[in-house]
Design brief:
This protein is an alpha+beta fold. Helices cover 20% and strands 36% of the residues. β5 and β6 form a beta hairpin. α1 packs parallel to α4 and α2 packs across α3.
C-alpha cells in the first residue's frame, strides 16, 4: 500500500489512499444536550442545490449554505428553526461551484459538512461531479450483494463478523472493551456499502443527501450518545481492511475509542467484485 496522498480534517477526517481507498467520519462532541449534523450539499432531481442539517436537543439551530470562492466564501442561503429535534433544508437553483454547509445553534455548537463540487449542465439539468478515485468502478451490472449471505438469526455475514472480531482484537490491545454487534447498526452499514457499490460513489454522504446519522436512525437505531463511521473500498478481505483502517489516524481513532460499545459492519461487492466496507460505531 502506498502512503496517503493527503488528509482533510474538519468534522470529518478523510484519508485518501491511492489504492484501496478509505475515509473516516466521527460525530462531533458538543454538550450532551445537543447533537448537530450538517450534510454535504447535493444536486436534487428537480435541479436545485440542497443542503440539510439534523439536530437533537439544540437551541435554535441555523443552517447556512456557503459557496467557496477565490476570495472570502459567499453565504448563499440560510435558514433557522426553533429549538428541539428536527431537520431543515435550504435549496436554490443550481449553479456550478464548490459548496459546503454549516449548522450552528445559539449555544455555540457547530457542525460543518464536507465540501461538494457540483456541476450544472447547459440544459439546466444538474449532475454531481464525483471526486476522482484511483480505482473507479463503472456503473451498471448486477445489484451488489453481501460477500456471503448472513446466517439465519445472526448479525452479519462471516466476513462482516470477522471485521468485528479483528476490530475487537485491536481494541483489546489498547485496553478497550469489545464492541457488541448490533443488528440495526449492521443494517445501516450494509445499506450504505450496497448503495455506494450500486451507484458507483465513495462518500459518507449518500447520493440522496443523507448523513451517516440519518442512515443509522433510518435503520431503527434509537438513543445513543456518541457515533462514528469508517468506510473503505477495494480491500479484498476483513484482515486487509482492518489493517488499512488501523494505519490511518482517523479510522484508528474511531476503532480505539473506548467510549463506543456497539458496532455494525456492512460489506457489499460491486459488479467488478470490489468490496465496499462500512463500520458504524455507537455508544448506548
Amino acid at each position: 500500500m502506498r502512503r496517503p496522498l493527503g488528509v482533510l480534517a474538519c468534522l470529518v477526517s478523510v484519508a485518501a489512499l491511492s489504492s484501496p481507498v478509505a475515509t473516516a467520519q466521527a460525530a462531533s462532541t458538543p454538550p450532551a444536550e445537543c447533537r448537530l449534523f450538517a450534510a454535504r450539499p447535493n444536486v436534487t432531481a428537480t435541479g436545485n442545490i440542497q443542503a440539510s442539517a439534523r439536530w437533537f436537543g439544540c437551541g435554535r439551530p441555523t443552517l447556512v449554505l456557503f459557496r467557496a470562492t477565490a476570495g472570502p466564501d459567499q453565504v448563499v442561503k440560510g435558514s433557522a428553526r426553533r429549538a428541539g429535534n428536527g431537520r431543515m433544508t435550504v435549496e436554490l437553483p443550481c449553479a456550478s461551484g464548490v459548496y459546503y454547509s454549516v449548522a450552528t445553534d445559539r449555544l455555540g455548537n457547530v457542525a460543518q459538512s464536507r465540501p461538494a463540487r457540483l456541476s450544472c449542465s447547459s440544459t439546466g439539468t444538474p449532475t454531481p461531479v464525483p471526486t476522482p478515485s484511483p480505482n473507479p468502478s463503472q456503473p451498471g451490472g448486477p445489484t451488489p450483494t453481501p460477500v456471503t449471505p448472513p446466517p439465519a438469526g445472526g448479525v452479519g455475514t462471516p466476513e462482516e463478523n470477522e471485521v468485528v472480531r479483528l476490530t475487537n482484537a485491536e481494541r483489546a490491545k489498547g485496553g478497550c472493551q469489545p464492541l457488541k454487534a448490533d443488528a440495526q447498526l449492521r443494517k445501516a452499514a450494509f445499506g450504505h456499502s450496497s448503495d455506494m457499490a450500486t451507484q458507483n460513489y465513495f462518500s459518507h454522504t449518500s447520493k440522496d443527501g443523507r448523513t451517516f446519522m440519518e442512515r443509522i436512525r433510518g435503520a431503527g437505531f434509537t438513543g445513543g450518545s456518541a457515533f462514528a463511521e469508517n468506510i473503505a473500498m477495494g480491500y479484498p478481505n476483513p484482515a486487509a481492511v482492518v489493517v488499512g483502517w488501523m494505519k490511518s489516524s482517523g479510522h484508528r481513532a474511531n476503532i480505539m475509542n473506548c467510549n463506543y460499545n456497539l458496532i455494525g459492519v456492512g460489506a457489499a461487492k460491486n459488479s467488478k467484485g470490489q468490496i465496499y466496507w462500512t463500520q458504524n460505531f455507537a455508544r448506548r
